[in-house]
Specification:
Number of strands: 3
Oligomer: single chain
Helix content: 25-40%
Distance between the termini: 43 Å
Structural class: alpha+beta
Strand order of the largest sheet: 1-3-2
Largest sheet: 3 strands, antiparallel
Order of helices and strands: HEHEE
Radius of gyration: 15 Å
Shape: globular
Number of helices: 2
C-alpha cells in the first residue's frame, strides 16, 4: 500500500507530465502561461526565477516547481515584482504563504507589467 505522501508525489509528477503534454500541442512562437495552485512554497531566496517578493522557506514542491521552471525556461511572474503587496499581507498576519503562481516563458517576461494572485476563493 502506498503512503499518502507517495500518492501525493505521484499526483504532482502526473501534473507536470500533463503540462509537458499540453506544451507539445503548441507552436514554438506561442506564449505559454501556466497558472494555478501549485501548493508549493518557493521561498524568498533569490534564484533565477524567484524574485524579491517570495515568502518564507522553500518546501519540496517549491523545489520541484523551481526545477521545472529552470528546465523549461519559465519564470514566476507574481513574485518577480517589488510592488509591496503580495496579495497575502494582512495586518497582524504572521503565517503568510504563497502557493498560487503565474508562470510565463522567460523570453516573454517583459510583456508582463503586473501579475498578482489573490488568496482564497473570494477576493476583496
Amino acid at each position: 500500500m502506498q503512503s499518502t505522501s507517495d500518492s501525493e508525489d505521484v499526483k504532482v509528477e502526473k501534473f507536470y507530465e500533463e503540462i509537458e503534454k499540453a506544451k507539445g500541442y503548441l507552436k514554438s512562437q506561442d506564449i505559454i502561461i501556466v497558472m494555478g495552485d501549485f501548493n508549493a512554497k518557493v521561498g524568498d531566496e533569490r534564484v533565477d526565477i524567484v524574485g524579491p517578493s517570495g515568502i518564507g522557506t522553500v518546501n519540496e514542491r517549491g523545489s520541484r516547481l523551481i526545477e521545472w521552471c529552470q528546465i523549461n525556461d519559465f519564470t514566476i511572474t507574481n513574485i518577480k515584482t517589488t510592488l509591496g503587496d503580495s496579495g497575502l499581507e494582512r495586518p497582524g498576519d504572521r503565517n503568510r504563504n504563497k502557493i498560487d503562481y503565474i508562470l510565463i516563458q522567460k523570453r516573454f517576461r517583459n510583456a508582463v507589467k503586473t501579475s498578482k494572485s489573490l488568496p482564497g476563493a473570494e477576493s476583496d
